[in-house]
Each structure stands twice: as structure tokens, then as C-alpha cells.
Amino acid sequence: MLGDGTVFPQPGRLLFVNREVDTRTGTIQVRVEFPNPGNLLRPGQYGRIRAITELRKGALLIPQQSVSELQGVYQVGVVAADHKATVKAVKLGPLYGDMWVVESGLQAGDNVIVDGLQRVRTGMTVAPTPYKDTQANAVTGGN
Fold first, then answer.
1. 117: left (phi > 0), else alpha (psi -120 to 50), else beta?
2. I need a labelling partner for 65 at 20 to 30 A (CA). Which of 37, 51, 92, 113 fits?
3. Is the pTM for the entire model greater than 0.85?
4. How far is the C-alpha of 50 from the C-alpha of 87, rounded, in Å?
5. Which CATH number does 60-140 carry?
6. Which residues in the chain are classed under CATH 2.40.420.20?
């Protein structure tokens, strides 16, 4: 990303990564080579780099707002086919935008409670409605 926030249109190629973290800035030195048609980039210019550091195919993502944390334990409300709620402990991975990666505790296809989890108790009957999140749909390609 350039200094004005725009994304440089050409992909780069990683040349060097310094393992030392600058304690003043929390950054590491990275050297990247970019094609430069139009000479937009100048010697010594700085920018921000976004890079894929890990790829998780088939990762289970849930909205951040659907997670409750209590004394270091993360909990999620799940609605069964009979509209009964269950509060489950989950192990979470990294955040991806406003979505958590779920390491364990949920299965693909589980219906997660996104709003009102603080009022839900295991065994209570709920009236679920579909959750619409345009950002998540853009990330996952879903509808």
C-alpha cells in the first residue's frame, strides 16, 4: 500500500526478510521487488505490505460478535434443528477481518447465535432468523 492508502496495482516478489523486530516501531525490515511501469515508485520510498502468511483452506469462520469470553474461555451459542439453544466452549484461532477462525468446538453447518448471546441459556427455545453480513459474504463468497 502506498503512503496515500492506495494499493499498488502490481504484485511484488519477496527478496529478503530480516528476523529482527525494531522495538521502537514493532516492525521488521522486508525487501520486495515490484515492476514499476510509469515510474510511480521511487528509490527509498516506504509503504505497507500486505502478505499472505498462512493459508487455511476450509477454515470455519464465525462473526466476532457471536463470541463471548468469560474468564479466558470463549463461548458460542448454537441453535439445533428443534430451535433449542446450547452454549458451547470453542477454541479460536486468529481474527480475519471481523471474523474468528474456529479451531475446535463447532462443526460446519452449526447455526451460531450472533445477536443476544448474553440472554441465551442452554436448553432454552429460540426463534432464529438468518444473519445477513455483507462483509462476511464478500470474504467467503456466500449469500
1. alpha
2. 51
3. no
4. 36
5. 2.40.420.20
6. 60-140
Alpha helices by DSSP H, listed for 38-128, are none
CA distance 65 to 77: 11
Task: Name every residue whose Cβ is closer than 8 Å to that of residue 51 and which is 6 or more positions away in sequence.
Answer: 14
Distances (CA, A) of 106 to 52, 66, 103: 25, 13, 8
Cβ-based neighbour number of residue 79 at 10 Å:
18
> 141 pLDDT band (50/70/90 cuts)?
very low
Question: Rounded distance, CA 131 to CA 112, Å?
Answer: 9
Contact criterion met (CB below 8 Å) for 21 and 27:
yes
Report the chain's mean pLDDT, rounded to a whole number: 84
Q: What is the pLDDT of residue 133?
A: 64
pLDDT in tens, 128-140: 888 776 544 444 4
